[in-house]
Automatic annotation (TrEMBL):
Protein name (Swiss-Prot/TrEMBL): NOL1/NOP2/Sun domain family member 4
GO biological process, one term: rRNA methylation
Organism: Gigaspora rosea
UniProt KW keywords: Methyltransferase, Mitochondrion, RNA-binding, rRNA processing, S-adenosyl-L-methionine, Transferase, Transit peptide
Active-site residue numbers: 203 (nucleophile)
Binding residues for S-adenosyl-L-methionine: 68-74, 105, 150
Gene3D superfamilies: Vaccinia Virus protein VP39 (3.40.50.150)
């Protein structure tokens, strides 16, 4: 995915199923170089990651939250959609046109990487369209038109390339991650305006971190939600959501995503505090779908 044209890489071929300028090559890409404005000319990113941003169905004036944004690739894609009119004209004719992105990552180290990516790829004249935070955000009011939750996951693909990761892997890891992902989603859906979208993303291939989390949030969230079903050019449907697998999609992925739409205000329900596998969550009294 590139923010400026580059034609010096051999055998460039545009990815046909994306509406942003995204290219592949049989040759290894060179290191990005700065253009005349001091901005790096392209960013290397899996095409599946661009698809999940496309799933947000962004409008140029949307207010968006990227909840776990580091290292920053998906945030760059969000900004490219939001600022498409400005970037396309290449003269920054109206600096106040376009939406706003809050890019958050609770890890200070990862957030530093996120800030560097934004500095390297977004001109200073456009950086007022993004705010970078490093907080363990707790959402209580509908604030955003769209939310991207690229949740921490067990990331099984890394196990094949990292002996240390493989040696530390345990069967219980996915179950523990799914509990954290559910808690994150339970909080995040409260931040969407009625009619807004949340896209839940993992790079896991384990259904317990993917469609099982989505099924649980659809059943238990006090915020009325429905799944938005869509067909995509690559990948395949799951019981809930969509998955892109490298062995079936020319090496793209693995990446799972599901689109959730808030369809109503929701009703206040009395809550009590319960312990959920080592950490506390708010539990609706009517809901018995927890492991105590």
């Amino acid at each position: 995915m590139n923010f400026r044209r580059f034609w010096d890489t051999p055998n460039l071929e545009q990815v046909s199923f994306l509406d942003l300028p995204c290219y592949v090559s049989s040759e290894r890409f060179k290191q990005p170089e700065k253009d005349e404005n001091g901005i790096l000319n392209y960013y290397l990113l899996d095409a599946a990651s661009i698809m999940v941003v496309k799933a947000l169905d962004l409008n140029v004036n949307d207010v968006i939250l990227d909840l776990c944004a580091a290292p920053g690739g998906k945030s760059l894609v969000i900004l490219q959609y939001l600022l498409s009119s400005i970037i396309h004209n290449n003269n920054y004719f109206n600096m106040n046109y376009g939406g706003f992105l809050t890019a958050n990552d609770p890890s200070p180290n990862r957030c530093r990487r996120l800030k560097q990516v934004i500095t390297d790829y977004i001109p200073p004249s456009l950086q007022h369209h993004i705010k970078i935070l490093s907080l363990d955000l707790s959402l209580s009011l509908p604030t955003y038109d769209k939310i991207l939750v690229d949740a921490p996951c067990s990331a099984e693909r890394h196990l094949l390339n990292s002996p240390s990761e493989f040696s530390n892997w345990k069967p219980s890891r996915s179950k523990i991650m799914s509990q954290k992902q559910y808690k994150m989603l339970l909080d995040a859906v409260k931040g969407i305006h009625v009619g807004g979208l949340l896209v839940y993303v993992t790079c896991s291939i384990n259904k317990f971190e993917n469609e099982e989390v989505v099924k649980k949030i659809l059943k238990n969230s006090w915020v009325p939600l429905e799944e938005v079903k869509s067909e995509w050019m690559i990948g395949e449907p799951c019981e809930k959501g969509w998955i892109i697998l490298p062995d079936k999609c020319d090496g793209w992925g693995p990446l799972y995503f599901a689109i959730l739409k808030r369809v109503g205000e929701g009703e206040f329900r009395k809550k009590e505090k319960r312990t959920f596998k080592g950490f506390n969550v708010d539990k609706n009294i009517e809901n018995d779908d927890y492991e105590e």
